[in-house]
Design a protein that fits this description.
It catalyses: dTDP-4-dehydro-6-deoxy-alpha-D-glucose = dTDP-4-dehydro-beta-L-rhamnose. This is dTDP-4-dehydrorhamnose 3,5-epimerase. The chain is built from 3 helices and 13 strands. By secondary structure, it is mainly beta. A hairpin with a 2-residue loop joins strand 3 and strand 4. It is globular.
Length: 183
């Protein structure tokens, strides 16, 4: 497994496994504490694993947490997703930077998203399972949502939106979220 820095988002990494394939299929390591530690992250900081299943065209996000934020390891364990990260850390050298990825079950690449970054994704296949490893227990009172279609972000979602939560559908613009946070 190797770690590669994400140029557009300071502190974000892609963890690319080395699959072993044969006539049975493949095997790969999807988490390696030594590799995570090698880029300065504490592998023991992750306290919760979660999984979402989405149908083709479902859009989730853009989400982040207020307060101390929330760092995540995200991987598409089945299917394919279009994944988006937006840096909302005012002191970051990549503040307001955006990065787009296609994560899939074929590669099993894991994306590390630092606390303070917004995250969202859209399912590209009939079924897409997305696995999360999160560094803090979830507190719904800290949930923040930003409009997926905010023109300031101009995210090139690849498919028409088939479905999304009411919270995501009614999310405020990035400018409104930043104003509420005093930025």
């Amino acid at each position: 497994m190797k770690a590669t820095e994400v140029r557009e988002i300071a502190g974000a990494y892609l963890f690319e496994p080395t699959p072993y394939a044969d006539e049975r299929g493949f095997f790969c390591r999807t988490f390696d504490a030594d590799v995570v530690r090698s880029v300065g992250l504490d592998p023991h900081a992750f306290v919760q694993d979660s999984l979402s299943r989405s149908a083709r065209g479902v859009l989730r996000g853009l989400h982040l947490r207020s307060g101390a934020g929330e760092a995540k390891l995200v991987r598409c364990s089945y299917g394919r997703i279009f994944d988006v990260v937006v840096d909302l850390r005012p002191d970051s050298p990549t503040y307001l930077g955006r990065a787009f990825f296609e994560l899939s079950d074929e590669t099993q690449v894991t994306l590390y998203i630092p606390a303070g970054c917004a995250h969202g994704f859209q399912a590209l296949t009939e079924t897409a399972d997305t696995s999360y490893r999160i560094d803090r227990p979830h507190d719904p009172a800290e949930d923040v949502t930003i409009a997926f279609d905010d023109p300031e972000l101009a995210i090139p979602w690849p498919l028409p939106v088939a479905s999304m939560s009411q919270r995501d559908r009614e999310a405020p613009s990035l400018a409104e979220v930043l104003k509420r946070q005093g930025r």
